[in-house]
From TrEMBL:
Enzymatic class: transferase
Enzyme nomenclature, EC number: 2.7.7.6
GO CC terms: RNA polymerase II, core complex
GO molecular function: DNA binding; DNA-directed RNA polymerase activity
Name the record gives this protein: DNA-directed RNA polymerase
Length: 326
């Protein structure tokens, strides 16, 4: 027997058939549940402002790496609050995320707002075809618009264009590969670390030694207590200049007020640079004081080692003299 689509959809004897029409009517209303036209227009206006900011950054004289950081920051923090605030309070996805059962705010942004910038190998999509002239054949050669470098202004609710779908799949493919490769690398790194450290012991004199009593370190952890260094102004062995550049390039702007965000961006950069510069001076002073304190201890250990060596050399000479006399 043959069944028509309408007969199958309204046949109450089929498993779940009676719910199909009602389900389709709910899907038709999903746009209203996920916010109105005002929020969508706000997101699009924020994206257009981001495009203008990217053009300004492209024309600047900043180093290439720093410029890429600023472009990524400009494209990834636009219209997010509008997409989230446009949700109905009774929205099931919103309730699920608020309760902590499943999902995150990023899922809401990608469904209702836009997917944002897609990166591959930590960079925007590179122009790899036509001698580095473009990312896809559908774009003009030399076009530097964010859309041609992996920025997706569409959402899952509206649907992606063919080019956007390609960029999104390219970034997703990298994630799947990294999941497999990094699991292997991290597992092997852990095994090597365990085998290397399996016979190391911290003795009562705070020295680190192996199974044959060779000294690996004169002072475990350089005598720095991690519990005392947490959230403190103690010495740091981090590249401060690199952190300053990265923070200044990735300061999130306020999507609700883009003009004030630009001002805050500059002010925060100057304030952060002064703050960390002052911290560098304090770190250097702390390291110098640490060297002075530890210098006396290391000197004693060195003198003891030299004394022991002299005793061994003296014993060796005495044995050689005895052999010659005999």
């Amino acid at each position: 027997a043959e069944f028509s689509g309408s007969q199958f959809a309204t046949d109450h004897h089929q498993p779940g058939g009676g719910q199909i029409v009602r389900g389709l009517s709910r899907i038709a209303q999903v746009g209203h549940v996920f916010g109105g036209q005002q929020e969508q227009r706000g997101v699009q206006m924020a994206i257009q402002k981001a495009y203008i900011e990217v053009q300004t950054i492209e024309k600047s004289d900043d180093p290439k790496l720093f410029k890429e950081f600023r472009i990524n920051s400009a494209l990834n923090n636009r219209g997010q609050s509008l997409a989230i605030n446009g949700l109905c309070k009774n929205n099931r996805l919103e309730v699920m995320i608020d309760s902590g059962s499943k999902g995150s705010r990023m899922n809401i942004i990608q469904i209702t707002g836009h997917l944002g910038q897609n990166n591959v190998e930590g960079r925007r999509i590179q122009s790899e075809i036509d001698d580095g002239g473009r990312t896809l054949p559908c774009f003009e050669r030399g076009d530097k618009h964010p859309r041609t470098r992996g920025f997706i202004e569409s959402s899952f609710l509206k649907g992606l264009s063919p080019a956007e779908f390609w960029f999104h799949a390219k970034a997703g493919r990298e994630g799947v590969i990294n999941t497999a490769v990094k699991t292997r690398d991290s597992g092997y790194a852990e095994r090597k670390l365990v085998k290397r450290m399996e016979d190391l012991t911290v003795l009562l004199d705070h020295t680190v030694r192996n199974s044959v009593n060779n000294i690996i370190s004169f002072s475990y952890g350089e005598s720095l207590n991690p519990t005392m260094m947490y959230n403190s102004d103690g010495p740091s062995f981090v590249d401060i200049d690199n952190i300053v550049n990265r923070l200044n390039a990735t300061v999130p702007s306020n999507p609700e007020d883009d003009e004030s965000a630009e001002i805050l961006y500059e002010v925060r950069g100057v304030a952060r640079y002064k703050e960390i510069t002052q911290s560098v001076k304090e770190y250097r002073a702390s390291i110098k004081s640490l060297k002075e304190k530890k210098g006396a201890v290391y000197k004693k250990l060195l003198n003891a080692a030299r004394g022991k060596l002299k005793e061994l050399l003296l014993e060796k000479k005495e044995l050689e003299v005895e052999k010659l006399n005999n």
